[in-house]
Every structure is written in structure tokens, then in C-alpha cells.
DNA sequence: TTGTGTATATTCACTGGTTAGTATACATAC
DNA sequence: GTATGTATACTAACCAGTGAATATACACAA
């Protein structure tokens, strides 16, 4: 049984993800994660050198799937650029209406660890947001928008703002409001001079 | 000495504010707060029935001063409506560049307590954001904007988004980017039909 | 086929430290 | 002498991380 090791590690990360996302990092003990994964704490510490390490793994595991979701929602949406971006917010609103939704795991973790700037989990969260920003920036640049980075950042601000506000008020309609704002900003940018192609 | 009681309570809230804001709720013990306030934990528990109670008092104490700051920044700014709202973001960027800045205390607390929806601190945070939203809505309504609530919510989304993003990346320039987005959204709304007066 | 060494994987039981909250007694002011 | 306020010293629980021992699988040799 020892040999594989990867399935065990993956099971631990899966258990940690569910608990950390639902309850928060500091409210969940390593023992609880181990119990949920069906093994003892000592075994968990064989696979991860510390709780911080486990937290980092939890966020790292969310990175690519999260971005892939955004890309899928964008790609599958009908209509032009504004509609495709707005579709991301509409899909997010649908997710947020699920009772188990608890906001953005990256932002919540970073908020919980706000006084530990060098923490690996915060670096992972920051990198995740940068990847999203960069993906949008490339799309906007391709469309010939004059300042694609600025527009990408404004969309990111609306996205993260809606995570925070929806979580606080438990009212997913803010996500659709954010989508409308995103549409307005993109349409304005498309009309501006300085574009490379129509 | 016993009689007054209010100054002692205020001193405790002040100590709690400094510690909770800088370090986070769960990282700070009641003993630390008491020590910072210059008294013992037992005395603190005479004035507050629990730590949760103290957390609620910490946020309640930030409510009015925070809103007053926004109102001041808005009132003292030169120019029209878009410029006055943008001034809030510029002033916030200046605050965020201070090394002790750690984001929005309301949002960070709500993120830390994300699984306790009935927690008094979360209700206080939600009410605070609603007050800000309502203040903006009234201003926009007075200016004859067609959908003042929607625009107020979009500005709120940008504001809270910038809190989250600036905290994560430690890059206050996002706040100015949010201010530009706010300006764009307001200018667009001002140009839209359906306005009551010019 | 059988024995043996080694890296991998897992467990039990423990330590040392922290923390929210309390029992009890004492002090001050009116 | 009673309300209010403060301090000392405690409890009971929790929790991150570790020491020492054990079990399994596989490589390789006999």
C-alpha cells in the first residue's frame, strides 16, 4: 500500500479544501482534516511539513480549476466581448446562490492571514488573481482596446468586490450588478479612440 | 473611581480596535486586549460578556468615523460628481499606502467569521456597507440619475473590490484604477436618458 | 522461490503552549 | 451597606507539532 502516496496526499488536500473553505483556516484543526481524510494527524504530517504547507496546497489545488471555469464560461457565452464577460458574472451569481457558497477561498484566506505577508498561501492567492487579470488583459489587447491592462484590472476589481459584498450580504444579485458595470466599462473602452482594430 | 465606567470601556474598545485590526480577530487573545488596555482580563469580562461582544463593539466603533471620512473626502473635493467620488478613491489610495494599512476592518472580520452568519459583528459590517451604499444612492438620486441604487452598488463593488485587491497585492494603485472606473460609470449614467434634471 | 534490506507509509501516545471564560475575594464611592 | 468595579488565580479545552515504533511493498541476492 505505501507505494503510491499520491492518492493519499490528494485525499488530504480534498478533505482540507472542504473544511478550510467552509469553516476558515484557523477554525479547522489539523486533527479535523486528518479525521476527514480517514487517517491520523501524524500521517498528515508525513505528507505536509506544517499546517501552513497544507493551506498552501489547498489554494494551489483550487488555482487551475477556478481559472478553467472562468475560461469555459467566457468561451461558451453567446454574443460579443461585453456579453461574454458579463456571462462570467451571471454564472458566478448562480454559483453564489448555492447554500454552500462562502465567497472566494483565495480572498478569504488572504484576509485571515493579513498580517503574514510572506505566507505562501498569500503568494498563491495573489498569483491566482494575477493570472485572471492577465488572461483578461490578453483578450482585451487582442480586441485592440487602448489600455487593456487598466480595463482588466477594473473587471478584476468588480469581480473581487462582488465576492466580498455578496458574501457579506448573502445577496447574489450584486454579482449581476457587477456584471452590468463590467459591460458598461468594456463598451466604453470599445468606443474610445486609440484602438488598433475594429 | 468605579462610577464613570465609560472611559474604561472606551479604552478597552480602543485597545481591541488596534489589535483586532492589525492582527485579526482570532490571532488576538482577550488577555492581549486587556493588557493593552492596562487592566486584567477579569475586568474586561465585567464590561463585555464575551469576546464576540467585544468584536462587535470594535466594529461598531469604526462605523460612524469611517462614514464621516468618506463624507468629508467627498465634500471637500473640487469638481463635479464624478470627480468628487473619484476623490474618495484617491484619498483611500493615500491611506492604503501607509505601512499600517491592512484593508477594510469590516470585510476582514466578515471573512474571518464567514461561517457564522448570525454573528453580531457580521450584521454590523453589513449595516455599515448598506449605510455607505444608501448615502451614495441619495446623492445620485438628487442628481437625477436614472437608477441611483444600481450606480451606488456599482461604486460599492469597486470600493470593496479595491480593498480586497490592494490588500492582496499590496499595491495601492488599484485604488486609483477603481476610482477611474467609478468615474466612467458615473459619467455614463449622467449621459443616459431618464434623468430628472440636468 | 525464498530471504533480506530499505525507502515509503502509517499509527499511538505525548508535549508544550495557548486561550476563553470563571470562582472568589477585595476595593471604592455614594 | 450596597452598587460598581478591579484583581488574583484557576479550569477545562484545544491544538500544532514530535518521538518512537511499526507495517508494507519492492529490489535484489541466494
Automatic annotation (TrEMBL), chains A, B:
Pfam families: TetR_N. Signal peptide: none annotated. PROSITE patterns: HTH_TETR_1 (PS01081), HTH_TETR_2 (PS50977). Keywords: DNA-binding. Residues 6-66 form the HTH tetR-type domain. InterPro entries: DNA-bd_HTH_TetR-type_CS, Homeodomain-like_sf, HTH-type_TetR-like_transc_reg, HTH_TetR, Tet_transcr_reg_TetR-rel_C_sf. One of its GO terms (molecular function) is transcription cis-regulatory region binding. Residues 29-48 bind DNA. Gene3D superfamilies: Tetracycline Repressor, domain 2. This is TetR family transcriptional regulator. It comes from Bradyrhizobium macuxiense.
Amino acid at each position: 500500500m505505501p507505494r503510491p502516496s499520491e492518492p493519499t496526499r490528494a485525499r488530504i488536500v480534498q478533505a482540507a479544501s472542504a473544511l478550510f473553505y467552509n469553516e476558515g483556516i484557523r477554525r479547522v484543526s489539523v486533527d479535523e482534516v486528518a479525521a476527514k481524510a480517514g487517517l491520523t494527524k501524524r500521517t498528515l504530517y508525513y505528507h505536509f511539513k506544517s499546517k501552513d504547507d497544507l493551506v498552501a496546497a489547498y489554494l494551489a489545488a483550487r488555482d487551475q480549476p477556478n481559472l478553467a471555469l472562468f475560461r469555459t464560461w467566457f468561451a461558451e457565452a453567446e454574443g460579443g466581448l461585453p456579453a461574454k464577460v458579463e456571462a462570467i458574472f451571471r454564472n458566478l451569481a448562480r454559483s453564489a446562490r448555492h447554500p454552500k457558497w462562502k465567497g472566494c477561498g483565495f480572498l478569504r484566506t488572504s484576509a485571515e492571514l493579513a498580517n503574514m505577508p510572506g505566507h505562501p498561501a498569500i503568494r498563491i492567492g495573489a498569483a491566482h488573481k494575477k493570472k485572471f487579470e492577465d488572461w483578461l488583459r490578453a483578450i482585451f489587447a487582442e480586441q485592440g482596446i487602448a489600455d487593456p491592462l487598466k480595463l482588466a484590472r477594473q473587471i478584476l476589481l468588480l469581480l473581487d468586490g462582488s465576492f466580498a459584498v455578496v458574501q457579506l450580504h448573502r445577496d447574489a444579485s450584486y454579482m449581476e450588478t457587477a456584471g452590468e458595470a463590467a459591460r458598461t466599462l468594456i463598451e466604453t473602452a470599445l468606443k474610445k479612440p486609440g484602438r488598433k482594430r475594429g
